Amino acid sequence: QVQLVESGGGLVEAGGSLRLSCVASGRTFSNYHMGWFRQAPGKEREFVAGIRWSGARTYYADSVKGRLTISRDNAKNTVYLQMNSLRPEDTAVYYCAAATVRRIGVSDQVSEYDYWGQGTQVTVSS
User: Fold this and answer.
1) How many CB atoms are located within 10 Å of the residue 57 CB?
2) 121 phi/psi in degrees, rounded to 5
3) Which residues of the chain have pLDDT under 70?
């Protein structure tokens, strides 16, 4: 089992920044690709960003490219999501997730992830 705990969400004005953190415990963190997803009210959960177990490559949804940056520190069992130039449409509950390394690339599919955090709310006001 892997436990994931997110933090760093909050209320911010459009154009502002937030940094989300997700701390993992339970198993070897570097055995997992990591992803950030988000879910807005009435919408399906969607992929935001992902990072390989080694941190060597990152992946982003088109809607966040150039504004959000995913990173990880395997020594601290932590994955981060730096969020800049936030927009009201970024408002959602943000979840981190862990996927057992089964292939080189990082999936953008919810079903490919084995463990999930409880989520942290991000609200961007206009």
Assistant:
1) 12
2) -80, 130
3) none
